[in-house]
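Listing S7. Sequence submitted for prediction.
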Amino acid sequence: MPTAESTSWPGWKFFSGLLVLGLLTKVTISGLFLSPPASLPSAGLRLSEAAASDAGTPATAATAPRLMALLEKERHAVQAREAALNTKEEQLRLLKKEVEERLHELKAMQSRVLEFLEDEKRMQSEHNRHLVATLGAMPPDRAGKLLEKMDEEVAVQLLRNLKGKDAGAILALLPPDKAAKLSNKLIK
């Protein structure tokens, strides 16, 4: 019997009604799932299954071979997927190995190219030093004529490596437009 305290809350009837409804729903659902298969309308053998099964065998005995066949079929499907995955993994391992080998080859090739470039740079530097020494030993008018016919970038590199006095003497003997171009490039 409800007390005065429990009835003082206005939603107690609604709340208790929901609790009762929930319990009834739970009992109904539990009854459906715990009832024997023959009592459910969708449970039991279908007509085609009943005709195929023996008249004297129970329903569970007839479904056991079918379940076993389904399980076996699923097992084969899983094994096939596993074999396909193993094949893919092996292919990926081979590809990874091939990529690593090619990467190693490319790194070795890059190292050789860098060594070659360093050797080329060193040889170019030696040639430039020799040419600078030759230009420094020449009279300025002959050195100017030589620089006038050279590529401007090479001439600028050579002038940068000459002593300031020698470079100035050579630039003074060059035509004014050529001397101005070389001087501008020397500044940059």
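Caption to Listing S7: primary sequence and predicted structure tokens for the chain studied. The chain has a mean pLDDT of 80. The CA atoms of residues 95 and 101 lie 10 Å apart.
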